[in-house]
From TrEMBL:
MF annotations from Gene Ontology: NADP binding
Highest taxon of the lineage: Eukaryota
Compartment list: Membrane
Domain called 6-phosphogluconate dehydrogenase NADP-binding: residue spans: 361-478
Segments forming domain Rhodopsin: 27-266
TM annotation in the entry: 12-31, 43-65, 85-108, 120-142, 170-192, 204-226
PANTHER family, alphabetized: INTEGRAL MEMBRANE PROTEIN (PTHR33048:SF31), PTH11-LIKE INTEGRAL MEMBRANE PROTEIN (AFU_ORTHOLOGUE AFUA_5G11245) (PTHR33048)
Composition bias type Basic and acidic residues, residue spans: 308-318
Compositionally biased tracts (Gly residues): 349-358
Region of interest called Disordered, as start-end residue ranges on this chain: 308-367
Name of the protein in question: Uncharacterized protein
InterPro entries hit by this protein: 6-PGluconate_DH-like_C_sf, 6PGD_dom2, 6PGDH_NADP-bd, NAD(P)-bd_dom_sf, Rhodopsin_dom_fungi, SAT4-like
Presence of keyword Cell cycle: no
Length: 523
């Protein structure tokens, strides 16, 4: 006879989300390592990994050991074995919740845009989680003396009254619910007074819904916690309690990994678009709007060359790194394109010049960049010899022209704030304005010139100028001023959640279909 779970709710609460948790965790660590963007949220998840593994194994074992059945129907071995696995589960489960909340908290701090009160709220919430959940974990470890009495009630020794564990379980649930709601609603304050269209509002609502959904498990668990005091039906009552406890842990694990997984999913979508005819280019563009024509720029990660190409005037709206459709751009302007190019493209261009961030700023009133990661942004902008800030500051000091610098990449807020601070220091004696404007819309949007932009700047008067440039790459009604510097990056981070969820779900669906015999390539 096939082995069947004694508690189907508990088995399903771990087996259904398990592949999503494993895939998202592996992707998280790989992406952060490759992008050299490791942060405190990743350390928290790394510490959590062995705790989560033990809790998951214990949950699977409990779902087959007898938990969920009437206590009187179990043999002495089944009863003792179930309690042993329950003891193995409960301590690491408490610390797993702490690590997950801390990881989500540090991820929110990445996009807090320097708002100190938001950071204080996050740190306070993390502290409460550590004290209540961590304290409960330590208590459960020592509640019986000797330890073996936890799963062998008839042996000599003593245990604290089980009502203490019940009270602590209620406290853990209340703190968990409160933290989930706090972390879910903080993005509202990051986006306060930002005018959004329905698509963007939908993204925010989905983001908030994730936090609300994560709080459902502890809310439902509250109903069953009183069953911990019933010693005659303890294992039967634990079936419902632990099913929701496992669901809370595994949903939280997945939600905590989502932000880190987005870059790879975005790359996969870009590759798919290139196979189906979309533009998969990723160029670094500087200057005023002009259509590039048929020449497409690609980035070779191993190349350290920056190339300059003088473009001829041509009608049309310029796509983000490739030719596109649209309205006529401003006549009579000169556009220079710099890109980190591969050898083939570099050899096909006439008049290419090695350069860098400083070179681009020396010869332009407006510099627009789209850089792939934080390290590249720091190198291009902050290098005292070759950086864009140095180049812009040098030319601004000798002219009355205001330099406008716009960064359209999607990176963490901390790097944007660092560049903005350097620009402000330079601005003290020179006319220099920095704006962060992350872009959204994928290669198809770039090809059609309908990208969306989310701007953040401390100098609001410059936004109409920024919008006039970006309107040649995107729709004017999809270019938003989100707030101070860093707000655009913060909002793009939040906007990444829905696409990450959809892509992960689609990947898992294709994987399941393949295992069931479907020809995924043909379908």
């Amino acid at each position: 006879m096939a082995l069947a779970p004694t508690s189907w709710p508990m088995a399903l609460s771990v087996l259904i989300p398990l592949p999503f948790d494993i895939i998202s965790t592996v992707l998280r660590f790989w992406i952060r390592h490759k992008r050299k963007a490791w942060g405190p949220d990743d350390w928290a998840m790394l510490v959590n990994l062995p705790l989560w593994t033990v809790s998951t194994i214990a949950t699977i074992a409990m779902s087959f050991s007898g938990i969920g059945q009437n206590d009187a129907s179990l043999s002495t071995f089944q009863y003792s074995n179930s309690l042993r696995w329950f003891y193995i589960f409960q301590e690491p489960w408490c610390f797993t919740l702490v690590a997950i909340k801390v990881s989500i908290g540090f991820a929110l701090i990445r996009i807090a845009s320097g708002k100190k009160w938001i950071e204080y709220v996050i740190y306070t919430s993390m502290l409460f989680n550590f004290v209540v959940m961590g304290g409960t974990g330590f208590y459960l470890f020592f509640q019986c003396r000797p330890v073996q009495k936890n799963w062998t009630p008839t042996m000599d020794g003593e245990c604290n009254d089980r009502s203490i564990q019940t009270v602590l379980s209620y406290a853990v649930a209340v703190v968990s619910i409160s933290t989930d709601w706090i972390f879910a609603t903080l993005p509202i304050f990051l986006l306060w007074n930002v005018q959004l269209d329905w698509r963007v509002k939908g993204s925010v609502m989905l983001m908030l819904g994730l936090g609300v959904f994560a709080s459902i498990a502890p809310i439902v668990r509250l109903k069953y916690l009183i069953g911990l005091n019933d010693s005659t039906h303890l294992l039967q009552n634990l079936g419902n309690i632990l099913a929701w406890a496992s669901a809370e842990m595994n949903v939280g694990m997945f939600v905590a990994n989502l932000p880190a997984c987005h870059p790879l999913l975005k790359h996969a979508i870009s590759q798919f678009s290139s196979w189906t005819g979309g533009s998969g280019s990723r160029s670094l563009s500087y200057g005023k709007s002009k259509k590039l024509g048929a020449q497409r720029l690609s980035r070779d990660p191993a190349s350290k060359h920056w190339m300059e190409l003088e473009e001829q005037p041509e009608e049309g709206r310029k796509g983000h790194g490739g030719g596109s459709k649209g309205s006529k751009g401003p006549p009579g302007v000169e556009t220079r394109i710099y890109g980190d190019l591969d050898t083939g493209i570099r050899g096909s261009m006439d008049g290419g010049n090695d350069g860098g961030g400083r070179t681009s700023a020396d010869g332009a009133d407006t510099v627009i960049t789209t850089l792939p990661d934080s390290n590249t942004v720091k190198k291009v902008y902050l290098d005292p010899t070759t950086g864009t800030i140095a180049g812009a500051g040098n030319t601004s000091s000798t002219t009355d022209t205001t330099k406008l610098i716009v960064e359209c990449g999607t990176i963490e807020t901390a790097t944007i704030l660092e560049v903005a601070k350097a620009a402000e220091i330079s601005r003290a004696s020179k006319q220099l304005t920095f704006v962060d404007v992350p872009v959204s819309g994928r290669p198809m949007g770039a090809q059609d010139g309908i990208l969306a932009f989310m701007a953040g700047t401390n100098h609001k008067a410059i936004f109409p100028v920024v919008k006039s440039y970006l309107s040649h790459m995107g729709k004017p009604d999809a270019i938003f001023l989100c707030g101070d510097i860093g707000a655009g990056t913060a909002f793009k981070f939040i906007n990444n959640y829905p696409s990450a969820i959809t892509s992960l779900a689609a990947s898992e669906a294709l994987n399941t279909g393949s295992k069931m015999g479907l020809d995924v390539a043909r379908s």
